[in-house]
Design brief:
It is a single chain. The mean pLDDT is 90. The protein folds into three domains: 2-87, no CATH class; 106-271, 2-Layer Sandwich (Nucleotidyltransferase, domain 5), CATH 3.30.420.10; 286-345, no CATH class. By secondary structure, the protein is α+β, with helices and mostly antiparallel strands. Helices cover 30% and strands 21% of the residues. Strands 3-2-1-4-5 form a five-stranded mixed beta sheet, sandwiched between helices. Strands 8-11-12-13 form a four-stranded antiparallel beta sheet. The chain starts with a helix and ends in a 7-residue tail after the last strand.
């Protein structure tokens, strides 16, 4: 009677009444490509409810998922795989401004402290990541550094500038003490020499203008969420740096940007920027770190081991590297004022 009244086949109505089918929902004729990854996504989001969907999508693609990103996010929503979090609901209404960034004009820099680095690093509670971004194209690179002191900052600036492919006309910083006097914004004399060496103008953000360097702030957010959250606990500093460089090349540089001629990748836009060449030698700053000598009288530095006299076993020494010299000095005490007791050729990170 129901089938005659509705004008449908009675077998269809019988299936609805028995609960075998749901009105308005068609049965799939092929297997659901997302089904094999449901349990993996549920466990990953239960472990880390704030994991970005883009990061999770990268993981399932490596596991063999062949669907698109919109389909993936729709499956997450439909199946309610992400636990609800009221504190993370987006806020709206914050005033913003669109700032023009001509090609080759500005590189933006910022530090980010990443929590809970692997204990084997010996870096304490936080790792320090320096991020540099070409403001026009959005290409960014990062450098994992042991300290935020000026010498380490200079080493990171040189490393990232060479990875970006050249020097822009200006470098923009917030009011960090290693670059300027925070109350006044005036560049320090020591960093002015660095700017002169690389031929750049130093631009300091105005006070209480957090959005002024929004390009690097977004890159910092991406580095913390898509790189650091998924980093295994058993990697070395050198392997972590290699993973970051690979991610920037394979993921960051392949993003599409709106241009006058349509859409182009970040790598394409960055390749067209008029950048000045990087100086042949880095600025001659001396970066110093403290190390504990092993029982075998070896000192670890950037994935390599350097020997010291056996009487220094299990003591604390300082390792200083002057950028551009190609060697490192090991001091007999915990700071660089102690006498130099060993000098070694600086090997490439993680080569032995």
């Amino acid at each position: 009677a129901i089938a005659r009244h509705l004008g449908h086949d009675r077998k269809t109505i019988r299936a609805y009444l028995a609960g075998d089918r749901e009105p308005g929902v068609r049965k799939r004729t092929i297997a659901d490509p997302f089904e094999p990854f449901v349990e993996y996504c549920r466990r990953r989001l239960a472990e880390d409810p704030h994991l970005w969907a883009t990061t999770l999508f990268d993981e399932v693609v490596e596991l063999g998922y062949a669907g698109s990103y919109p389909t993936f996010t729709r499956q997450l929503r439909t199946r309610a795989l992400r636990p609800a979090c009221e504190a993370c609901r987006p806020t709206k209404g914050r005033p913003v401004a669109v700032i023009e960034h001509p090609a080759g004009e500005e590189t933006q820099w910022d530090w980010v402290e990443l929590p809970d680095p692997p204990k084997a690093w010996g870096w304490g509670k936080n790792a320090h990541l320096l991020v540099g971004v070409l403001a026009h194209s959005g290409r960014w690179r990062g450098a994992l550094l042991e300290s935020e002191e000026q010498a380490h900052l200079i080493a990171g600036l040189d490393q990232i500038t060479r990875a970006l492919g050249g020097v822009t006309k200006s470098w923009r910083f917030d009011r960090m003490a290693t670059v300027c006097h925070p109350p006044t914004g005036r560049v320090t004399a020591t960093f002015a020499a660095v700017a002169k060496h690389y031929g750049v103008q130093v631009s300091i953000c105005p006070p209480r203008r957090g959005n002024r360097k929004g390009v690097v702030e977004k890159a910092v957010h991406v580095a913390a969420q898509r790189f650091w959250r998924t980093l295994p606990d058993d990697v070395s500093v050198e392997e972590a740096q290699a993973r970051l460089d690979k991610w920037c090349t394979t993921r960051g540089d392949t993003r599409l940007r709106a241009t006058k001629d349509g859409k182009s990748s970040v790598a394409t836009v960055a390749a067209a920027e008029p950048l000045a060449p990087v100086p042949a030698a880095p600025f001659p700053a001396t970066a110093t770190v403290t190390r504990k000598v092993s029982a075998q009288a070896l000192v670890a530095h950037r994935g390599n081991f350097y020997s010291v006299p056996p009487e220094l076993a299990r003591t604390t020494v300082a390792v200083s590297v002057r950028l551009g010299t190609g060697h490192l000095d090991i001091h007999a005490g915990p700071d660089a004022v102690a006498p130099v007791i060993a000098r070694h050729r600086l090997a490439a990170p993680g080569t032995g």
